[in-house]
Amino acid sequence: MMDLIARLANRHARVMVLCAVVVAAVAAFIGAPVVTSLTGGNPDFVTPGSGSVRADDRIGAATGIQSDGGIIALVDTGAPVDDPRTREEVEKVAGLMAGDPTFADVLTYYRTQDKTLVSKDGQRTIVVGRLKDSAEDHYQDAVDRLSDRLDGDAAVKLGGSEVVGNQVVSTVQHDLERAELLAFPVLFLLSLWIFRSLVASALPLVIGGLNVVLTLFGLRVVDQFTPMSIFSLNLVTALGLGLAIDYSLLIVSRFRSEMTVEPDIDRAIRVTLHTAGRTILFSSLTVSAAMASLFVFRQRFLYSMAVGGLLVSASALLVALLVLPAMLRLLGRHIDFLAPARFRRSLEAPENTDGGWFALARGVMRRAPLVAIGSGALLVLLGLPFLKVAFTTVGPSSLPTSTSSRSVADTLRADFPADPLESVQVVVAAGGDTAGAQPRMDALRDRIAALPGAAAVTPAVVLNADTWLLQVTPREPGLSAESQTLVKDVRALSGPDEVLVGGQTATFVDLEDSLTGRLPAAALIVFLTSMLVLLLMTGSLVLPLKAVLMNLLTLAATFGILVFVFQWGHGAGLFGTEAQNALDATQPVLLFAMVFGLSTDYGVFLLARIKEARDAGVGEAESVAQGLGRTGRVVTAAAVLFCVALGALATSEIVFIKQLGLGTALGVLLDATIVRALLVPSLMRLLGQWNWWAPAPLRWLYERFGLREGGAPPLAVEKS
Questions:
Q1: What are residue 125's DSSP bridge partners?
Q2: Residue 53's Cα: distance from chain center in Å?
Q3: How far apart are the C-alpha atoms of 199 and 243, rounded to whole Å?
Q4: What is the enclosing helix (H) or strand (E) of 608?
Q5: Among 18, 44, 126, 598, whose Cα sits 20 to 30 Å from the Cα of 414?
Q6: Quick check: 712 pLDDT over 50?
Q7: Is 106 helix (H, G, I), strand (E, B) or coil?
């Protein structure tokens, strides 16, 4: 395959580059609108078929009213609730809601005399707008209309689940623009420092931009068939830039290196594809497998990330193998235009075995036991805080304090008896006549009221012939551990009638249960595919097993730092946030896939060079030293650029996007430094020839299907 691509690049470079320009233009035209067409919010995190969804669906079918969301207007005129000015403002807001066809019902204190709608000091009140269950596709439009009509009214702030979703979408779109503006200049300057050439440093960004455009096009196509989450855009832009830059660095560095050996462009393209191109193929397979594991999960947020990740990795591979070699063929010797020759030769010449990375490599070889113990212990130490992790989900606290939904939520929690949207909805399917079911409902209400987490329980209300509803006010805020226990306790109550529990906290409990139940299957997919790819590349069973262990240590350290920063709040101010007391529940799943895939990605870079040296006859220890020395600069440069691309997400105003950006950047940085520069080579030095051991069936598999450099002999594998 690499021979075919090399021939195409050498013979038809102009046509391939021209085709790439045309495809990019079409993809940009079609794909760009996806940035404003995707939505996000509570629906991204619900678990299809769960008890909470069934409860909410039953309420919606019986009443026509959405049960798991709504819009809350906080009214604060500066006058008490019984003042005419406050009542006039409330009636104004209620009238706007009632006049909108998306609203099914509007609750005010003056209509219901419900004191939970009034603040404890009597100075503020809320208007609760409940939405039609059948108008789900128009909720965000309703939020926009109400926001426009209340624009400039300082006495009213809008909150509630649908406003949270609306403000999350607008914040994500704003964050994407800012992240791109911040990342691109920094990436270009770093590339310029790495390559010392204006032309060479521009190539990774060009390839990265092309990758993002193609992926947005793919996302737009998929969105036409199944709704995608807007949060996948963050992954597409950051991971698209990062992978393309990684692959470009590997290709361009190897091409420049080969050009210093013999200035034959055709030969350099051919060798580059047989070495770096092959490494990129393995890398793309590992990243794709890791992202594909997210399809195991049922939440739209995660399968959208799976789609985005697969599109990104496939596009990055195609662009790096088809477009970049053609561009290098056209540039030829001009790739080093304005690059000082002495810098280029000292950095790219393959015969050079001097410099800091080779010195580090040989130092690690000399002190392998000490380095292995020290670096491993450091990763374990960094991972210890993860033992105390707690989880939450997307809500008002995920948004900055400047947003109205965050302000309303904080005010309700501090100054009101309860948040009406945090109540636990208990739906009872009770057949038979109403009179016969009433005693059972009263008994159930008494049993729920006796639970330690219940502050109050409303009398059972008949929704239709066979559906009853009880609303439970929890003693502690929604999503708290006590409220989650309350949901589980209510579900554990047995009786003749089916009891379903819905609401915000129940939705989160179902999310956690779903993620926990499906994580082992996703992990197994990642482990097995990563090991298979590394086996086909190296012919070893030991190296894939060691790679899995290294990746797990990297993940543990990454999660430990995230707990330290975002859950405990140490250094959170550096990222424009405060202690969250928990991590987002989807972070372990998403970061597991991303960090594991990317860690294997860098492992492939290192192992490919070690194997190349070993196959050329270099000894065990020296091949490890040469592999680290050759890849140290490229892998570190790729990691730094990747950290900038993904670390830009840490500037997001949405907390869990900050966690995703910082977590991925940390994982990449830890892997490219402590793991790849210290732990992996020291362990390889200690294991010696055992690194390449595999049982007879796996040796046969490698010899039959393994992918090797063109013309290279089969790998000699040590026998047990």
A1: 75, 118
A2: 24
A3: 20
A4: helix 587-615
A5: 44
A6: no
A7: strand
Phi, psi torsion values for 184, nearest 5 degrees: -60, -50
Contact 500, 488 (CB under 8 A): no
Q: At what angle do helices 356-366 and 368-383 cross, to 10 degrees?
A: 100
SS3 104: strand
Decide: helix, strand or coil at residue 502.
Answer: strand
Q: Are 292 and 311 in contact (CB under 8 A)?
A: no
Question: How far is CA 162 from each of CA 30, 35, 148, 168, 485, rounded to the nearest angstrom?
Answer: 29, 20, 15, 10, 26
DSSP 8-state assignment for residue 432: S
Tokens of 95: 């009238």
Q: Whose CA is closest to 122, among 81, 75, 78, 77?
A: 81
Q: Is the distance from CB of 312 to CB of 240 less than 8 angstroms?
A: yes
427-439 burial, b for 16+ CB within 10 Å, e for fewer? Answer: bbebeeeeeebee
At residue 534, does pLDDT exceed 90? no
Write down how long the chain is: 720
DSSP string, 684-695: HHHHGGGGG---
Region for 319 from its dihedrals, namely left if φ exceeds 0, alpha if ψ lies in -120 to 50, beta otherwise: alpha
Catalogue the long-range contacts made by 267-273 (C-beta closer than 8 Å, 24 or more residues apart).
Answer: 268/328, 269/6, 269/9, 269/10, 269/325, 269/328, 269/329, 270/2, 270/3, 270/6, 270/10, 272/325, 272/328, 273/2, 273/5, 273/6, 273/9, 273/321, 273/325
- Which is more confident, 355 or 150? 150
Question: Where are the alpha helices (H) located in 224-351, listed in sequence order?
Answer: 232-261, 265-272, 278-292, 300-318, 324-331, 341-348
What distances in angstroms separate CA 381 from CA 386, 556, 557, one per listed residue? 10, 9, 8
Residue pair 455/474 in contact (Cβ under 8 Å)? The answer is: yes
Q: Are 253 and 339 in contact, with CB atoms under 8 Å apart?
A: no
Q: What is the pLDDT of residues 553-610, one digit of tens each?
A: 999 999 999 999 999 999 888 888 888 888 988 888 888 888 888 887 777 778 888 8
Amino acid identity of 231?
A: F
What is the Cα–Cα distance from 55 to 67, expressed in whole angstroms? 9
Give the number of other CB atoms < 10 A from CB of residue 4: 9
Residues 406, 419: Cα–Cα separation, whole Å: 13
**CB-count exposure of residue 374 (10 Å: 0-12, 13-18, 19+):** middle
| Six token digits for residue 149 | 């009509």
pLDDT (average), residues 530-540: 85
Query: Collapsing DSSP states into helix, strand and coil, what is residue 364?
Result: helix
DSSP letter for each residue of 30-80: HHTTHHHH-B-SGGGG--TTSHHHHHHHHHHHHHSB-SS--EEEEE--SS-
43 class by beta-carbon count within 10 Å (0-12 exposed, 13-18 middle, 19+ buried): middle
Q: How far apart are CA 509 and CA 480, in angstroms?
A: 11
Q: Look at residue 392 and give its three-state secondary structure.
A: strand
Q: 3-class SS at 115? A: helix
Nearest to 660 by CA among 333, 236, 264, 34: 236
Model confidence over 391-412: pLDDT tens digits?
Answer: 888 778 878 888 999 999 999 9
pTM attached to this predicted model: 0.83
